[in-house]
Write a structure and sequence with these properties.
alpha+beta; Immunoglobulin-like; about 25% helix
């Protein structure tokens, strides 16, 4: 009987950490600040260019630091870019964020056509 308890206890101690990793895995794909309605539009470790299909919001999430590093309103047809060489984010060639932390990390660009959320505070420091 004690052998069965030991096996059950061992399985529980192995399965709980696995469940915790599985549950937090979803958060690291988009972070808590990216709305569920936003769809993954582009991702990569280097330069990213994304043509916006509709008016809405764009979100840039850094998977390495698990942080939302940018969000802003966009208009259909605009080009959003991650410039990894110069450490900045651009909208139609205009710098919208300079000296972006972790610019060579893996970034995910999400797009939300709903666009009801407000952009991050432009004065936010990292």
């Amino acid at each position: 009987m004690s052998g069965k308890r030991l096996i059950a206890s061992g399985l529980l101690s192995v399965s709980l950490p696995c469940m915790a990793v599985a549950l937090t895995g979803c958060a690291s794909e988009r972070g808590m600040d990216v709305p569920a309605s936003a769809v993954l539009a582009a991702s990569g470790n280097g330069a990213i260019d994304y043509r916006v299909p509709h008016d809405g919001m764009v979100y840039v999430y850094d998977r390495n630091t698990d942080q939302l590093i940018y969000s802003g309103q966009v208009v259909r047809g605009q080009m959003f870019s991650v410039d990894s060489v110069n450490d900045r984010l651009l909208l139609d060639g205009r710098v919208v964020q300079d000296k972006t932390p972790g610019i060579n990390d893996e970034h995910r660009v999400f797009f939300d056509a709903d666009g009801t959320r407000q952009p991050l505070d432009a004065q936010r420091t990292y």
